[in-house]
Structure formats: structure tokens, C-alpha cells
Design goal:
By secondary structure, this protein is of the alpha+beta class. Among the domains are: 64-87 and 117-232, no CATH class; 252-306, no CATH class; 313-386, no CATH class. 37% of the residues lie in helices and 21% in strands. The strands form 3 sheets. Strands 4, 5, 6, 7, 8, 9 and 10 form a 7-stranded antiparallel beta sheet that branches. A 3-stranded antiparallel beta sheet has the order 1-2-3, covered by helices on one side.
Length: 389
């Protein structure tokens, strides 16, 4: 519909799936419509603001090489240039943000300019490697200076060591070198600034921290790829004993819940209902019950708030998605539930998502998932065309 370009207006469907309803935004690419998570989020946040036109959107501005786009992005950070930072991001990842940015960009830039922060980045040297349409950029050296409100921070990375100096209300300085970094690093309360700087220096030395990818022939910053790489690199630094300590901490936290929710932890974590106080009155918690000091009551209603069973409650405990769909549909047939009260995956099991959705798509291969969702898309599209949805 849009010949591969961004739509002039977001296309939304008010699908009252469930008691609170669901509003999703769809976009067209290569002749097919897709539900877009980020466009849906942006549309929710837009509220009553008018939708920017395509001409008002931030225009993507890529680079001719991985190092060029990385330099552009880093310098935009130094110049506190929000628009150029957004323009440097990969359109496939941040199309929605670039489209909706005019709603907030001017105000955000004005607040940043009024903050009185000065940033200077110099002596920037980068390295890069590519593999097809993706690449990685590492930082060989840089000098960074931050100043504002009477304070100044200077940080220098020369490829071997990180040196910093703080002047103003507090004064301190130090150096951390990659050669002094421990083989594994897990920061804690005893970690010194020098140890932290040494670990960072080793990371800068060993890792190309900025991920880039091409879009229509130009290179852009891939923040998603950079974040995933950062997570993987952090995990690679952990020793087996670090992972075991983390698991032990999780077990300790989960074990402490037994005192709050008594029960058989080897079977049903919720146990029976013996731990529920039948005499509990919500009014007493919020100060509307009887005042024992005076014997008076601020409310004449002594009833206890209790959950009122709803039609179809038992359907949620059924193991099979197909059987759960049948259960919900029986309540729709009897008039006790409206069709829009039933999750769409269960309301139309013929589209093939009931069982997969009910099991959180557990155990599905990528190929099976793509095939299932593609078939469901065509099925739901047919229902929309027929007016059933």
C-alpha cells in the first residue's frame, strides 16, 4: 500500500480481546500487513497528540562505513544532538521512534540544552570488522570531558589504560589498565575505582562494543545488537562459581517465600488454603474499620471483600488450549460471556493458535513458529475481510 515507505498514518484496529481490550497498530511492508509492537507502544504513548506526518519524521542518516556511522553517533552524543542520534539508529529497529519523535523531540532537546552540561569528545580512534550486512566497531582511544555546575570530569582511554580526573566539589583521580584486570570481574562493594577502570579497559581492548548493520546501502547503529552482545560478553566473564553463587542467591530468595506462602514446595507452591485468614478485612488495613482505642467505627459496613467468581474461571485451569477454547465458547453460547471477553486465539481456534498460545509457544522450533503464525495471519485476515473481526 505504501510502496515500501513508512505509512502516512498508523493503522490501528480496536480489538476488544479480553475484558480490558487491546489496541494494536499494524504496518505494511512488501505488500503484507504486520502487527508492530513498537508502533503499538508509540500509539499508546501518543495519547491525544496529533500523529506527525511522514515529512515531519526524523530522517534516517546513515554512514558509508561502520566507522563513519559510529563516529557520527558518538559525536552526536558529545554534541547532545538528539535528532542526529535518533537519525543514526537502524530504521528496522527504531522506525516507530523516528516516526513519533517530533511529538517530544523539541521539548527534550530544549530541556537538555537548558541543563547546562558541556560534553567534549576528542582523539577518537575506532576499529571495525564486517560480516555481510552487519559489523562491529571497537574504540581504540578517546578523550572525554564533562563539565557543569562547577564540576569537571576528564576521562582518557589510550588503548591500554583509562585515566580519570574529577575536579570541583570533589577531587579525585586514578588509572586502571587492561594489563592489571582480573581474568573475571564481578563488581561488589569492595571493588575499587582502579579495579573497575581496569576491567573496563580490558573490555574496550578485547571487545568491539558497537554493533552496526546496513539498511538500503547505508550503515546504521544497531542498539539491539549492541545490547545483546553486551549481555553475552558479560556472561562470558563469569566463572562457574559466579553462576553457582547467583543460583544459590535465587534459591535463597525463593526459599524465603515459603514463610510467606506456606505449602508443599515440591508439589504445589501455593499449598492449600490454610494460610489464608478468613477473618481478614481489607477495611482494617486501610483504616476504615473499628478503632479499638475508642470502640467506634468509621464504617457501618462490616462485610469482608471477597472475590466474586466469574463465568469461565475454570476454563483457565484446563491444560489443553483446544479444550480451554471449547470451555470458553460454551459460555459465549450461553450468553454468560461476550465473544470479546475471550482471548482471540481461543475465540477462533480454527486459526491454529489456541494450543500454541496456551502453551506459550513452548517447544516450537523457529520454522514451526513462523509457519504457525503465518497461517494464523492469513486466517485472521480472512475473518477481518468477512467482518467477523
Amino acid at each position: 500500500m505504501f510502496d515500501g515507505e513508512r505509512p502516512d498514518a498508523a493503522s490501528t484496529e480496536d480489538g476488544d480481546f479480553g475484558p480490558q481490550g487491546l489496541v494494536v497498530t499494524t504496518v505494511e511492508h512488501d505488500g503484507r500487513w504486520y502487527v508492530s509492537l513498537w508502533y503499538s507502544v508509540a500509539e499508546q504513548l501518543r495519547g491525544t497528540s496529533s500523529l506527525p506526518t511522514r515529512d515531519e519524521a526524523v530522517v534516517p542518516q546513515g554512514g558509508d562505513s561502520p566507522e563513519e556511522i559510529a563516529t557520527q553517533f558518538i559525536q552526536a552524543m558529545g554534541d547532545l544532538d538528539l535528532e542526529l542520534m535518533l537519525a543514526s539508529l537502524h530504521p528496522d529497529e527504531f522506525e516507530a521512534l523516528q516516526r513519533y519523535a517530533p511529538i517530544f523531540l523539541d521539548d527534550a532537546q530544549r530541556q537538555l540544552d537548558d541543563a547546562g552540561i558541556q560534553v567534549k569528545i576528542s582523539e577518537l580512534e575506532l576499529r571495525s570488522s564486517t560480516s555481510g550486512d552487519t559489523g562491529a566497531v571497537g574504540i581504540e582511544s578517546f578523550a572525554l570531558e564533562l563539565s557543569g555546575d562547577g564540576d569537571r570530569v576528564a576521562v582518557d582511554w589510550d588503548g591500554e589504560c583509562i585515566t580519570w580526573e574529577l575536579t570541583g566539589s570533589d577531587e579525585t583521580s586514578g588509572t586502571g589498565c587492561a594489563a592489571d584486570a582480573a581474568d573475571s570481574f564481578t563488581p561488589d562493594s569492595d571493588t575499587s575505582p582502579e579495579q573497575g577502570a581496569a576491567a573496563l579497559a580490558k573490555g574496550l581492548q578485547d571487545t568491539d562494543i558497537i554493533r552496526v548493520a546496513t539498511f538500503e546501502g547505508d550503515w546504521y547503529i544497531s542498539l539491539v545488537g549492541s545490547a545483546l552482545d553486551g549481555t553475552v560478553n558479560a556472561l562470558e566473564q563469569l566463572e562457574p562459581e559466579d553462576l553457582q553463587d547467583a543460583m544459590d542467591s535465587i534459591d535463597e530468595v525463593l526459599g524465603s517465600l515459603d514463610s510467606v506462602f506456606p505449602g508443599d514446595s515440591n508439589n504445589d507452591p501455593w499449598g492449600d488454603d490454610s494460610w489464608i485468614d478468613d477473618e481478614f478485612n481489607a477495611d482494617d488495613v486501610f483504616g476504615t474499620g473499628t478503632d479499638d482505642s475508642t470502640g467506634s467505627s468509621s464504617s457501618s459496613d462490616d462485610s469482608t471483600d471477597e472475590y466474586v467468581p466469574q463465568p469461565g474461571d475454570e476454563c483457565w485451569s484446563i491444560e489443553s488450549g483446544e479444550e480451554a477454547a471449547t470451555c470458553f465458547q460454551s459460555y459465549v453460547a450461553s450468553g454468560e460471556l461476550a465473544p470479546t471477553d475471550v482471548p482471540v486465539q481461543l475465540a477462533y481456534p480454527e486459526c491454529g493458535l489456541a494450543e500454541a498460545w496456551w502453551s506459550y509457544y513452548d517447544g516450537m522450533t523457529d520454522e514451526d513458529f513462523i509457519a504457525t503464525v503465518t497461517a494464523a495471519h492469513d486466517c485472521f485476515q480472512a475473518l477481518v475481510d468477512e467482518g467477523a473481526l
